[in-house]
Structure formats: C-alpha cells, structure tokens
Amino acid sequence: MIRKRLVAIVVGYGAVAAAACVLAPLVGSTHISLARVFDRSIPFADNVDAQIFFVARMPRVLAAAVVGGTLAAAGVVMQALLRNPLATPFTLGVSAGAALGAILVITFVQADLRVGLYSIGGGAIPLASLGGALIASLIVYALATRPGRTMSTTVLLLAGVTLNAFFSALILFVQYSADFTQTYRTVRWLMGDLDVGSFAPIIASSPLVLAALGMFSVLPRSLNLLSVGTDVAATRGVDVGRTQRLAFFSASLATSAAVALAGPIGFVGIVVPHLVRLMVGVDHRVVLPASVLFGAAFLIGCDLVARTVLAPVEVPVGVVTAVLGGPFFLWLLVRRS
Amino acid sequence: MAARPAKLEPMRRVLGVLCGYVVFVQMVAAQPPTATRIISLVPSVTEILFAVGAGRQVVAVSSYDDFPPETKSLPRVGALLDPDVERILALRPDLVMVYGSQSQLEGQLARAGIRAYSYRHAGVDNVLMTIRDVGRLTGHASESERVARDLQAQLDAVRARVRGYPRPRTMLVIGRDAGALRGVYTSAGVGFLHELLDAAGGDDVFADIKREGMQPSNEMMIVRAPQVIIELHSAEPAAADVVQRERAVWNALASVPAVRNNRVHLLYGSYLMAAGPRLGRTAEALAGVLHPEAFR
User: Fold this and answer.
1) Homologous superfamily of domain range B166-295
2) Do B253 and A185 touch (CB under 8 A)?
3) Would A264 disulfide with which of A87, A95, A121, B229, CB 3.0-4.6 Å?
4) ipTM for the complex shown
C-alpha cells in the first residue's frame, strides 16, 4: 500500500524535478538556440550558445537542485527531530557558523590562502563556511547531550537559538570592522548565490550531500514515531538516542554542504516541507523523498525568476524564495484551514 | 477662522523685505572663516585636503585613511558607520568633512556650532567640485584651482592620446572572490570609474545599466562579450604566480573575446579606486592597458 503510493509520488515529483532540470537551462535573460548548443562542428570556444548553456546555466540549475533538495530534506528532519513546525535547517546555528566562517575569509583573507605550497584559491570561502558549520553543530551537540541520556530537544533548540544569536553578533562585529566593499560582499554572501560558475564546486560538495541523503534514507520510520513523542517511539522499539543523533548529524551535514555551496538561502528549508505535507500528508516515508524532489524543483524555479525578472540585473535568490514562497505558503494554509 | 485685519499686511511686507535683506547681507559679507582645525572622515577628501596644501590644518582623520603617508601619525576618529563624536568634539575642530549620509552626525556638529562639509560619492565632476570647495573652505583656493585644473588637464591629455583608436568594449571588474568566478562585481554606467574608462578610450559593456556598480552573472558576462577585461585591485601588487592564477580564472569563459585574445588585465594599486586627485593616474593606467599602441 505505502510502497505503491511512495512509488507513485516519487515518480510524480521526480517528473516535476526532472522537467525543471531540463527546461530551466533553456530559459534565461538571453535567447539561445538548442541546435547550436549541441552543434559539435563549432569549436566550444567559438560557440557562445554552448558556453551559456554549459558554463553559465547548467551549473546553476544543478546547484539549485542540489541545494534545494538538501535544504528541504534537512528541514523535514529538523522539524521532526525538534517536534516543532517552525524549525528550519538554520535553527540550530549551523548556517550562522557557516556564515561566520565565510565572512571571516571574505574580510580578513585578502588574496591567496595557502596550505603549504597548495593554493586553496576559490575553495577558501566554501571551506571556511563548511568548517564554521561543522564546528557550530558540534558545539550544539555537546551542549545538548549528557552521557547515558537521550538528547533533550528543548536544550538542543535553546542551545541552537542561542548559538545562532551569538554567531550573528560576531558576524555583525566582523562586518562592522570591515571596510565598505568587504561589508557589501559579506551582505551579498548572506543572500545566497547559485551562480557557481563551474561544476567543480557541485562535485566537491557531492560526497557530503550523498552521505547526508544516505543517512536520511534510514530515518523515515523512526521519524514518524519520534514526531509523536520520544516515549511513544521508545515503547515501539525505536532507539531514540541513536535516531536523534543520526537525524541531527545528517541534517547538519546536509545544511553545511548546501550553505558552503550557495550561501544560506532562506525559506526553502521551512516552506518546502510544509508545502509537501499539505500535498501528500505527514508520513515521513513519503514526505522526505518528495521534499528532496520538490525542493530541487522549487529552488530551480526561484533561481530562474532571480536571473530573468530584472535582467540584465539579478535579484538575489534568497529574496525570491521568500517573496514567492511566503505568499504561496500562506495561500495554501488559508485554503486548507 | 476670522479674516486677518488688513492693516497688518504692509507691516508683514516690510518685515519680509527686512529679513531678506539681512540674509542677503550675511551671504555677501560673512564669508565663512577659513578653517584651521579640520577633521576628515572621508579618505578621498583627506587626500584632497593634503593635495591642496591644507594638510597642516588637518587634526584627525578616519580609521580607513592611509594616504598620503602623513595621515598615519594623525589621530583616528572612526568612519562612516562609527564616527566617535566625543573624540571629534574633544579635538575642537572648526570644520568636519562627513559623508552625505551622516546626517545624524551633521546635526550633532551643528548643535555644537561646528561646520560640516558633506561629501557624496559621484562622478569626476563631483571630484573636481569637491577639490574647489575644499580649497575655498581651507583658504587654499588658488592651489585647489591648480589641482583641479591639473586633474582636468591630465584627463584631457589621456582622452586626446587615445582619440582615433578603436574603442574596445570593456568590462571593469572591481571585486571578485579570489580564485573563482564568483562574486564578480563590476562598474556600470554611472560614476567616476565609468567616466575614467570612457576617458581612457574604452566602451563600458554595462553602460546601459545606470548604476555605479552591479553583479553580473556568468551568463551576462558571456553575452556581453567584453573585448577587454580589466580588474582593479586596491592592494599592493601580488606575486607573479598569483597574478597568473587569478587571470587564469577567466579561462572558464572561453568564448569571451577578452579571454580568447589574452586581453584580461589585472591592475594593482591603492590609488586605482580613490576618488581624488590621483584619478588621472587611474585613467592613465586604464588607457595604458586599453591602448598600449598609443603609449609606445
């Protein structure tokens, strides 16, 4: 029964996501000819259409798919773990840690960051944000756990929110002491940007994303019980402590990877899980895969709007996700209730 | 409301004329006294103060000032976002150079009876006007006139030198994440950098976008296909291998003429983006890479 429904929903949402992936690179601020894009007789360096397609649009669309899918799934897991519909992937301070890392590099590392003889170059900001995110997760985890006891979600939530505020204060201080151009760049980073410029950053983030998705795949049944309550889950044979740890670390890992790739793009992680639940119900076995696929399609769509609506100038994608997602979500909410 | 008694009207008219006369006399007679204790919160204006010969009258500068070297020994009193009002007042200035957006600080200075000169970031004409204003306020009117004329002449000379040469479509990059084609920030169709590029004999690929700066996507850079890309770095010149690696970042946009024809240039120097008397040097540096044939 559930298997049949799952297959139907995954196929349906998969089709939407696949269609977004295929169609979005065809649309943009400039018209390109598909025949020319795939015309092998023109050298790549001469083929402007192919350059636009493969250098500018495909990496963007793929990055949107990866980031949208992971953030949406991380949102589902966080909401179940914290048993709080307002939880987002950024609630527990992961994104603030990532932002602090990135902003420190933007502000204080001028040109060339090296480890020994090896130049980190363009990887410096993503690596710093990844480091910041992981450190933030470990701090929150250490605060919320006591040896031999299950994780307290209340302490987890409070620790996360406090760490968020603490890191935000540090970010403000760094911005305050930076000069104008750097401050502008840090503010811009906080709005999120999917124009990654090549496939390399996406490939670099894929092991983390795949690891997180792998961990997500064993969670749904336990999350269903966990979202009712830890006692209920425990009596039904769920290893609550293990499930909580797995949920926390997988969601943190997914969020870290997504934020390192594209900055903290807001709203995807809260609005997509709720939209999906409004459409398919509350069973995590369905909600989780559907959120990955719908999150991917949603962010691809938002980025398409971001890069076309005011062309040749762009709108930051984080602004689009909030402006489009907010009213749509409210409409669904009002219509349902 | 009752009608105003008619006999009051002539009196009001006389009063009005009197007031007008007083204002007129004040404007003509009371030239502002020459400032002798100046604080500058704007690095460009600091540079202008020293260029017009008012350097000895400067008693404090902003936390970002580093040119000319004489500023290094002066007290620091904050900057755009964090002016230290107490220290400013304690230094007993008679003229404070502030940003146009620092209206709160201007109000505080006015209440303390201290004059403020409000600076706004704009085009080359605005820089010339600021030079002349600063000269007049500090008692160096003739020097400032000379500085302004020299700058104008330097720009005119650059313009004359590149006249007749084909004008390449140019993208002027003023910011980018190190080692990646991300966070690219360019000059657009307004402001002094755009005007300097024009004087140096280049056509701005983003001239149609009426903003001082913009952040083009990779797609937009491919589509606009600049023939020359110039990156301005306000840092000290980097090591040769760093420059080479940073230039190679652009190879990702293989179809862009500037990349294909090896016309991606990286310029280094703190003067490049300083809206002051050194703008002429920036124009010369831009012209030098845009039209090397004209400078042979």
Assistant:
1) Nitrogenase molybdenum iron protein domain (3.40.50.1980)
2) no
3) A95
4) 0.83
